[in-house]
Sequence to fold (295 residues):
Amino acid sequence: MQHKPVLLNEISNYLKPEPKSLLIDGTVGLGGHAATLLPRVLPGGRLLGIDRDAANLKRARERLSGFDSAVVLVHDSYANVRTHAYAHGFTHVDAILLDLGFSSVHVDDPGRGFSFQNDGPLDMRYDQSQPLTAGEIVNTWSEDELARIFRQYGEEVNARPFAHSIVRSRAQTPFTSTIQLAELIAGIKRQHGKTHPATKVFQALRIAVNDEFGELERALPECVNLLKPGGRLAIISFHSLEDRIIKQFFKSTPALKVVTKRPLSATREERLENPRARSAKLRVAEKVSPSSQPL
Fold:
């Protein structure tokens, strides 16, 4: 399946890119959003794109090659956005975009280990240079630690039974593949409806491997600091736990004015064309000038 960036029209409408604007795409991925925004900031504008996945970044570089010096691409986590923004002259920026979803490229490649639809290694790393993998978590973390992440990151009601069975099973045979883990979970909990019993466990492992919530919490204040007054921060999330972090941060930060009182969702037409957009939620906030901040 070809990866399609979600909520393109909404992003363009709310970020309002204009010539000479400075933009940061902290999760540039394959460059879909960036390719739409860049023509609107020319002439004179620039975009800084950051991504943890070196393979995706290579494809983004190819896709955006026609924009030459207007694009700076960096292989790193968006949690380190301030370092790279300062290094490349992206201070007092007009807009910052974060798309927190993982791409269909990750799901479609069995070698990345994000999905149990096809057998692959228990990997799940966005940045394959980091040491921690899903396999290490499953095979070495304690039952309590496994139960905690299944419950906290996956909102899995069977967190403890799943963790207990994993620890007991790995004592005989370590886990090496996605299908091996998915089959164990399916043997404990029967499938009801279309959702596989291992779905939430795989979500929890992916979040833990990539420290997704920690990355988001570290990045949010850095993004606000980089925006100029009137600059906007747009964040697309794909499940309630991320959305809750964003909502609470927007509401509790005096330097921000919430633009979207409720999260925006994809139109019916987009959901039909791109099923990935069904769970996408967009929140946008604007940085206010110091003189207009509430006392």
Summary: The first strand starts at residue 22 and ends at 25. The mean pLDDT is 93. The longest helix spans residues 212-226.
